[in-house]
Design goal:
about 80 residues, mainly alpha, 6 helices
């Protein structure tokens, strides 16, 4: 099974989940809001992770850099996943 399919069913890697939990004011190992976290759009996840890592307001520029460099529109990818 591909990593993408695994992530859509389970959780993000531990370091991402820890950042997202701490961003919500939880301990890094507190799984009480993991279901809510996994309902977030990937765009919101990226924004929260970059903000937690002191890259405040860099979510959009990072997505644009990925689009410019890799020709991958993460917002479009996120919208397509919501339709599935």
């Amino acid at each position: 099974m591909s990593r993408k399919k695994i992530l859509s069913k389970e959780k993000y890697p531990d370091d991402i989940m820890e950042d997202l939990r701490q961003r919500r004011g939880l301990e890094e190992d507190d799984e009480s809001e993991d279901n809510d976290i996994m309902q977030m759009s990937k765009s919101d996840v990226l924004d929260e992770v970059v903000t937690w890592n002191n890259l405040i307001h860099y979510g959009e520029p990072i997505k644009q850099w990925i689009n410019d460099i890799y020709d991958i529109d993460l917002d479009e990818y996120d919208e397509n996943k919501e339709e599935d």
